[in-house]
Design a protein that fits this description.
The chain is of the alpha+beta class and 120 residues long. The protein has a domain of 67 residues. The chain has 2 helices and 7 strands, in the order E-E-E-E-E-H-E-E-H. The longest helix has 21 residues. The radius of gyration is 21 Å and the shape is elongated. It starts with a strand and ends with a helix.
Length: 120
């Protein structure tokens, strides 16, 4: 797309490996632009990621008491790290189980991470 006011050309590309799969950890410096065989220096590249829908089942026990406490802390820490990586458009549903399965969050868009993590 060309914007005559800014004289900027915008291209949106889908980048996949030769088998059509997602390429993880792609960065801006993985891209260069050539025009008529000359590398262009005044180029800005941005990486957009498609939203994901994720369902997560967290184990919180069902074993020895000491192990359950350690397991709960570790699971909560791992879940927090995962939630920090989610984008604004990503959706997540979370269940936890020990003796029974309990739904903590249905697929949601607003990232109320703190409220969600209090449940874990």
């Amino acid at each position: 797309m060309f914007d005559p006011a800014t004289r900027m050309v915008t291209l949106k590309l889908l980048v996949q490996d030769p088998s059509g799969y997602f390429i993880p950890n792609i960065r801006r410096d993985n891209f260069v632009v050539y025009e008529n065989g000359v590398r262009q220096q005044n180029v800005t590249s941005e990486i957009e990621h498609a939203p994901v829908s994720l369902a997560m089942l967290l184990e919180f026990g069902g074993r020895g008491r000491g192990f359950n406490q350690e397991l709960s802390q570790e699971v909560s820490r791992a879940a927090e790290q995962l939630l920090e990586e989610l984008g604004r458009e990503d959706k997540i549903a979370i269940w936890k189980y020990s003796d029974d399965v309990e739904k903590l969050a249905d697929f949601w868009l607003d990232h109320e991470r703190n409220a969600l993590l209090r449940c874990c």
